From TrEMBL:
<feature type="repeat" description="TPR">
    <location>
        <begin position="105"/>
        <end position="138"/>
    </location>
</feature>
<dbReference type="InterPro" id="IPR011990">
    <property type="entry name" value="TPR-like_helical_dom_sf"/>
</dbReference>
<dbReference type="InterPro" id="IPR052943">
    <property type="entry name" value="TMTC_O-mannosyl-trnsfr"/>
</dbReference>
<feature type="repeat" description="TPR">
    <location>
        <begin position="173"/>
        <end position="206"/>
    </location>
</feature>
<dbReference type="Pfam" id="PF13432">
    <property type="entry name" value="TPR_16"/>
</dbReference>
<dbReference type="Pfam" id="PF13424">
    <property type="entry name" value="TPR_12"/>
</dbReference>
<dbReference type="InterPro" id="IPR019734">
    <property type="entry name" value="TPR_rpt"/>
</dbReference>
<protein>
    <submittedName>
        <fullName>Tetratricopeptide repeat protein</fullName>
    </submittedName>
</protein>
<feature type="repeat" description="TPR">
    <location>
        <begin position="71"/>
        <end position="104"/>
    </location>
</feature>
<keyword id="KW-0802">TPR repeat</keyword>
<feature type="repeat" description="TPR">
    <location>
        <begin position="207"/>
        <end position="240"/>
    </location>
</feature>
Length: 556
């Protein structure tokens, strides 16, 4: 075999050293001398791909493949196609590379990357593990396997993989950051803090590590340090919406409402992914202009509970002279929200809304009205149960029950913090079953509904959840109860808005901002809602014991 041209050798060494300009010049010089030099075509294609010169890079890789059907050439093409989002072609190239050489670690890696993007996690995991077997020191393969496991909520396995990466290279920034995120999601904030600080020691301007350091500090109760970390993040990236939002949550949690509301407006910044349907383009968001004689739409955002909680601002809008106020909400809330006195119309989709002067998000109203803890609109009730619905449910709530208590122990499974806010099942509530003279009624819908059908031994629960069609039904049931016991979900807000007693079970970690700190009451639902907080992370049993003691004190 003749020796490689000097230009090629020098270019290859420059490429390995990361001197891409020099490498490109050398590869091009080689091709001027020998246009059919397959390795030069391949590696020049790799350099151009790394620079985002997609069209020429792909053409060069395909020319190299026309000369030699090589596994590494196919793997490089797969990488380019993957980066361009051409996933099916990337998978085909990766699989062809593996056919040629089953021991090509890069081919298995890019196959795994493609399968991850096409939502095939089990196959992707197999491919990552094969890539690691072939190239045990591949940091990227191990790190991305850890990310895959974290995405599948297999957090302990992900943490173990990230630690393996760091045993190979303790300064690998991606693994340091991802380890911190996995620990944060596992509610291990002290360990997460250490990982983020290690990442920042390697890269002091790592925006996301600094931002999530703030969140770790918040979870450990070091609020001043958390605020400083968020502030440093915003000094690096003033338009970083997630940092604004998390700073808002921190401030609101501490009851510093007037400081927090402006930052909360970042929740709808373009770079933040939102599942909410935005108002139609060309319509005008209300930001404080006079409303006398105007029409306004309260545009739905976030969850059912948010819609119920912030509907309280409707009378304040009417007091500003709004001529026609439309409230938009999801269909299950429509019949209940129609009982709101200050609303002229309720709509469930934009097609029901006519021409209007302004729209606003409900969670923006506290900012517009300058709401503080002392000025929260707290007149209760502001929603009502429809008499015909109450009558419909009356037969399901026996009169002979001494104390009628509703139960909701799980929220929506899609909530990012549902693992901490929802109970794992009914078992932790066992202390409640020992309280005499109480009949429990399940209002559970969705996840957990099946548990009510097979209640704990010795404690029958009247299962109403399966027959509940909407929140008007929920309200009609709550109206006939003596008490609702619930986790932080929409049913609790419905009880509060009805002015009915509600005991709220709150986790120690990831407690929502609206419940503030340490208090056992809430200014949002004064006099009717009592907060029971976990004493230790995940310990619902001890909370239930305190609740059982309080339940014994109630008199019919």
């Amino acid at each position: 075999m003749p020796p490689e041209p000097p230009n090629f050798q020098a270019a290859f060494e420059a490429h390995l050293a990361g001197r891409l300009d020099e490498a490109e010049r050398g590869y091009r010089a080689t091709l001027e001398h020998d246009p059919h030099h397959a390795d030069a075509l391949h590696l020049l294609g790799v350099v151009l791909s790394a620079r985002g010169v997609w069209i020429e890079g792909e053409a060069l890789l395909r020319r190299a493949l026309a000369l030699r059907d090589d596994a590494h050439f196919h793997a490089s093409l797969a990488e380019l196609l993957l980066r361009r989002g051409r996933l099916q072609e990337a998978e085909t190239s990766s699989r062809r590379a593996i056919e040629i050489d089953p021991r090509c670690g890069l081919a298995h890696f890019y196959l795994a990357e493609t399968l991850t993007r096409t939502a095939s996690p089990r196959e992707a995991e197999t491919a990552y593990r094969r890539a690691i077997d072939l190239e045990p020191r591949s940091l990227a393969a191990r790190n991305n396997l850890g990310n895959l496991l974290m995405g599948e909520n297999r957090l302990e396995e992900g943490i173990a993989v990230f630690r393996e990466v760091l045993e190979i290279d303790g300064t690998y920034i991606h693994a340091l950051y991802n380890l911190g995120m996995a620990l944060l999601r596992s509610v291990r904030p002290a360990e997460a803090e250490a990982a983020f600080r290690r990442a920042l020691a390697v890269q002091p301007d790592h925006r996301d590590a600094l931002h999530n350091l703030g969140t770790a500090l918040k979870l450990t109760g070091r609020y001043d340090e958390a605020q400083a970390a968020y502030g440093q993040t915003l000094a690096l990236a003033p338009d970083f919406a997630d940092a604004h939002w998390n700073l808002a949550v921190l401030l609101l949690t501490q009851g510093r409402l007037t400081e927090g509301w402006p930052h909360a407006e970042a929740r709808y910044a373009p770079q933040r992914a939102s599942k909410d349907i935005p108002p139609p383009a060309g319509t005008t968001q209300w930001q404080g202009k006079p409303l006398e004689g105007k029409s306004l739409v309260l545009w739905h955002e976030q969850g059912y509970g948010d819609c119920v909680q912030f509907a309280r601002y409707a009378p304040l809008l009417k007091a500003l002279g709004v001529r026609h106020l439309t409230l938009m909400c999801p269909a299950p809330l429509e019949p209940l929200m129609e009982t709101l006195d200050s609303v002229d119309a309720v709509a469930t989709h934009s097609g029901q809304i006519g021409q209007h002067d302004f729209w606003t998000y409900p969670l923006s109203l506290p900012l517009r009205f300058g709401t503080t803890l002392d000025t929260i609109p707290d007149s209760l009730p502001y929603l009502r149960a429809a008499p015909e619905r109450i009558e419909r449910w009356r037969a399901h709530l026996p009169k002979e029950a001494a104390l009628k208590v509703g139960l909701v122990w799980k929220g929506f499974a899609g909530n990012q913090h549902d693992a901490t806010r929802s109970l794992p099942g009914l078992a932790p509530l066992a202390p409640l079953w020992k309280v005499p003279g109480v009949t429990f009624f399940s209002l559970q819908k969705g996840q957990g509904e099946d548990e009510a059908a097979v209640p704990p031994a010795g404690q029958p629960i009247v299962n109403l959840g399966s027959a509940i069609n909407d929140f008007a039904d929920t309200a009609a049931i709550i109206a006939q109860l003596d008490l609702l016991i619930a986790v932080d979900t929409a049913a609790a807000h419905v009880a509060g808005a009805l002015g009915k007693p509600c005991w709220l079970m709150l986790p120690r970690d990831w407690t929502d901002w609206r419940w503030l700190l340490e208090r056992d009451d809430t200014p949002w639902y004064p006099g009717v809602m009592r907060l029971f907080r976990q004493s230790a992370s995940g310990d619902w049993r001890e909370l239930a014991e305190r609740m059982a003691d309080a339940l014994r004190q109630l008199e019919k």
